[in-house]
Amino acid sequence: MYFAKYIANRAASKNGGAADDAGKNVLSDIAAFLQFGPDEVRAIELSLRVAFCAMLLSLPLGIVVALLLARGRFFGKSLLNGLVHLPLVLPPVVTGFLLLIMLGKRGMIGAPLEHYFGLVLSFRWTGAALACGVMGFPLMVRAIRLSIEAVDRRLEQAAATLGAHPATVFFTVTLPLSLPGILAGMILSFAKAMGEFGATITFVSNIPGETQTLPLAIYTMTQIPGGDSGALRLTLVSVVISMAALLVSEYLARRMSAPQVMA
Amino acid sequence: MIEVAIRHRQGALDLAVAFDSGARVTALLGRSGAGKTTTLNIIAGLIRPDSGRVALGEHVLLDTDKGINLPPHRRRVGYVFQDARLFPHLTVRQNLVYGARRSGRPREEVERDLEHLVSVLGIAPLLLRRPANLSGGEKQRTAIGRALLAAPAILLLDEPLSGLDMERRDEILSHIEALKRETSVPMLYVSHLPHEVERIADAVVRIGDA
Fold first, then answer.
1. Quick check: A77 contacting B, CB < 8 Å?
2. List of chain B residues whose C-beta atoms are within 8 Å of the C-beta of residue A259
3. Which residue from A167, A171, A214, B55 has the highest number of Cβ atoms inside 10 Å of its Cβ?
């Protein structure tokens, strides 16, 4: 609604209130509106890169942790569970600050990382990806864990009696049967990364082209006079990307479960 | 061929089974709750008994005195579960070759066995279907084929006829009789129905006070 009103206002003011001409000019106005500035394009590109990296890099660890929590019986399991869920209950700024303390240039992990591997996370887009990955991790682990818990263990027993090693059983039975949950976890992680704000801005700041993701860019634009149209453009992009992710996951989930549903 | 001597307590069940059989088809007969399925689970390695020994000829699967307890995947025990337990994400064909693919047998040999078993069990038209849209009898026949294709040293059948109507029962029994003629795998057949056992078993072991 705001968008329509905005376009209408713009058209109206441009044409000095001549309503008849407004209709003709709306299209060209929309075209003008959709001209992205270089900073905006960089924010979109960066956000997608950060979100994909956060999702893909946290996936293997997410599956391992979900498996441990679903199946493992070991000392400190509730501690691990608490640790994984911490980013969900802590204020994002606190999580970002903890990352800064630990992984900053002088942090207890950050300093050796730079010294031995030349890897710098603070104030880099890689750090933004890490912050987003950490923030989305509890959501990802939760979805995968639930789907692993739902796998019928009697099928795994059947696979074992057919000569399959436990690792083979995991890759040929457990993992394929938990795919819908893994997919849901990936989408949640991606969506969280697209929207992450607090931890990112605290850990890696707000540097255009390096760490300024979509939410940060939108926020910045709302803070400067005349930045509204840019903020609105990026908001639209945000909505489109999130909707697309949701639709793709729905489509994949339906395709995967179709053969089983036919019963 | 198969030697079993086990003792296991689990809840209200106090199981003590000891038998020794070289017959082609040995039936385990007993009322429900007597511990027939538990016995099969112990032989397959899915349950560890309190004490006992299970051996297939020279091949010792379990000996609690000597601390031997092979995991299920190294026992070469084929198991046809009461509820079939086919993999829902695989086609019938993929289900059938699941164990064969892990057995390290040459592909041509597996293909030949597959073709033979598929015709003996009458499941050729089902190969590309998923387990979810098979009938009870079709599921059970696929499960038997899957267990046999893994080339087991023994085949365990846990009441494969339960949950089927009379006609299907007769059909599965005929297939099992055909398998008895066409293959050489010894079978351990669990049932609570004496007339079923009479028809296919060469030796009968009673479990509990049946």
1. no
2. 88-89, 130, 132
3. A214
Q: Say if B79 is an interface residue toward chain A (CB within 8 Å).
A: yes
Mutation target among A161, A165, A169, A175 for the B interface, most CBs of B within 10 A: A161
Is A260's CB within 8 Å of B130's CB? yes
For residue A205, how far is the Cα from the chain centroid? Answer: 18
Report yes or no: A12 and A19 within 8 Å, Cβ to Cβ.
yes
Round the CA-based radius of gyration of chain B to a whole number and report it: 17
What is the spatial order of strands in the sheet that B51-56 belongs to? B13-21, B2-10, B51-56, B59-63, B68-69
pLDDT at residue B47 in the model: 94
* Whether A155 contacts chain B with CB within 8 A: yes
Sheet containing strand B25-29, edge to edge, reads B77-80, B154-158, B187-191, B25-29, B203-206
For chain B, say whether A167 makes contact (Cβ under 8 Å): no
Contact B81 A154 (CB under 8 A): yes
User: A208 to chain B, minimum CA–CA distance in Å?
Assistant: 46
Beta-sheet strands, E only, within chain B: 2-10, 13-21, 25-29, 51-56, 59-63, 68-69, 77-80, 154-158, 187-191, 203-206
* Under 8 Å between Cβ of B29 and B198: no
Contacts of B188 in chain A (CB under 8 A): none
Interatomic CA distance for residues A84 and A154, integer angstroms: 29
pTM: predicted TM-score of the whole model, two decimal places: 0.83
CB atoms within 10 A of CB A232: 18
Is residue B37 a contact partner of residue B28, using CB atoms and an 8 Å limit? Answer: no
pLDDT tens for B64-107 read 999 999 999 999 999 999 999 999 999 999 999 999 988 888 88
pLDDT 10s digits, B133-155? 898 889 999 999 999 999 999 99
pLDDT band (50, 70, 90) for residue A25: confident
How is residue A66 written in tokens? 């979900």
Which pLDDT value is given to residue A17?
Answer: 47
